[in-house]
Amino acid sequence: MLEGRICFVGAGAMAEAILCGMLNHKIVKPGQISVTNRDDRFRLDELVYNFGVVGDSSQKYRSIQEADILILAMKPKDISTALEEIRAYTSQEQLVISVIAGISTKQISEFLGHQAPVIRTMPNTSAIVGLSGTGVCAGEFAKAEHIQVAREIFEAIGLVIVTDEEKLDAITGLSGSGPAYVYYLVEAMLEGGKAVGLSEQEAKDLILQTVIGAANMLIETNESPAYLREKVTSPNGTTQAGLDVLKQYQFQEAVKQCVVRATERSKELGAQSSVTLKKQ
Ligand SMILES: NC(=O)C1=CN([C@@H]2O[C@H](COP(=O)(O)OP(=O)(O)OC[C@H]3O[C@@H](n4cnc5c(N)ncnc54)[C@H](OP(=O)(O)O)[C@@H]3O)[C@@H](O)[C@H]2O)C=CC1
Ligand SMILES: O=C(O)[C@@H]1CCC=N1
């Protein structure tokens, strides 16, 4: 059980996924969590109604001031405005945890203007079903005890890897965005299934079982994906014929470059925010 009060600054999809995971795992009680955002009070009402958390927009600054842990969950473009607005209500006694893509712990410390411990993380939306893969790193002022708190929070929504900050952009490009790549593949397989005469429902059921089965095979056999692929591929059989088409379209290179570009984009988001900070 985590002690103290946790305040989300930003109450969108990721905030909901994380608070839902924490409550499901009973590491906090609903009354320990408060949610705040820019101005959408209907959204706060929804979270209050669905989860029993505290979400009174008239008490925003008080919630922030009284929190032991602040979880920053706004879009990268909004962080400078958000922290400009709330930094007077934050202090070095609070632990600040960010889930924001591309923004470094150093930038967050600069935005805050004090030496609160900052932990940067990168979960993904599978947090909603308790299956996020989350990268976690410590900023300059964070200690082992702060990493431990972050570990407890993010283990409630899946797997946690504690690592150096220099790897967080790569984690963002790989597993932060990763669910979208898998969904994109599933979308394409659905189109393929329909093109060869299956109904949408038949194709969907079979694809999802195939994706779950393949993921479980990778986990449970501990074999490499290349080895498992070869096991499926009979010489001159159907799989070989299908994979030849993927090779023709440079599928592997496309996916690799997708991860590289998403990682670069994470770095760009951080750089753009630094420009905003300098302009203030
Ligand atoms: N979605 C994803 O797959 C993942 C997202 N992330 C990161 O999580 C963060 C949030 O993403 P997501 O939940 O999808 O975004 P959403 O758009 O769903 O939510 C953003 C929230 O930020 C709030 N906000 C905006 N400006 C301010 C402000 N000035 N002060 C306080 N709150 C503000 C919004 O409030 P209002 O509605 O009132 O404007 C809203 O509640 C992003 O930085 C993203 O990089 C990380 C991992 C995965
Ligand atoms: O697309 C984005 O920028 C966010 C960060 C990782 C997933 N979604």
Automatic annotation (TrEMBL):
Pfam families: F420_oxidored, P5CR_dimer. It catalyses: L-proline + NADP(+) = (S)-1-pyrroline-5-carboxylate + NADPH + 2 H(+); L-proline + NAD(+) = (S)-1-pyrroline-5-carboxylate + NADH + 2 H(+). Its EC number is 1.5.1.2. Catalyzes the reduction of 1-pyrroline-5-carboxylate (PCA) to L-proline. One of its GO terms (molecular function) is pyrroline-5-carboxylate reductase activity. The keyword Amino-acid biosynthesis applies. This is Pyrroline-5-carboxylate reductase. Residues 5-102 form the Pyrroline-5-carboxylate reductase catalytic N-terminal domain.
